[in-house]
Amino acid sequence: MLDLDQLMPKLIDRTTDIGREGFEKVVKIFGASIVDSRGALDRRALFKRFLTQPQEKEKLDEAMGPLLLKQLNAQRVQWKSSGQALCFVAGSRLVEWKIHKELHGICFLEASLEERVKRVAKRDAMGKDEVRLMLGLQDQSVSARPFAKVIWSNDATLAKLLKTVDAFVDSRLSK
To answer: What is the DSSP secondary-structure string of 111-151?
Structure first.
């Protein structure tokens, strides 16, 4: 599985080979005000900018979409060469990044707002209020749901979700 939400921070990390190009693009678009005193991208400053100017997020999507696609294609080559029959690409913004056009289908995970807030806060070590603001910035009008071939409820335990995913994978591999 390739998790684009986990990959995104790596694509804007100036200290890595895959992140240098993204970092330079983001700084060129948004200026030095989003660079911290150590020279790294100040993600909180960028986030605050999006809160006051939500349309600015589109500029980030336009800059990062091609870089994410490049990484997805590199991952596809690895998957294919290793004989993978079925692979998953996870990401909260597949449609905004236009990645959905490159996939055979979307399995949409549906969860309540509070469940999503709890999970993102834990994953990204953010406060729940901050996560709510961030989730509010996501453009619900371009949600992946309308593009989904499969919709799963994700309000239960991880074990239950994994059981659902395993059943799905088994059904696809048996075809």
So the answer is: --HHHHHHHHHHHHT--HHHHHHHHHHS-GGG-SGGGEEEE
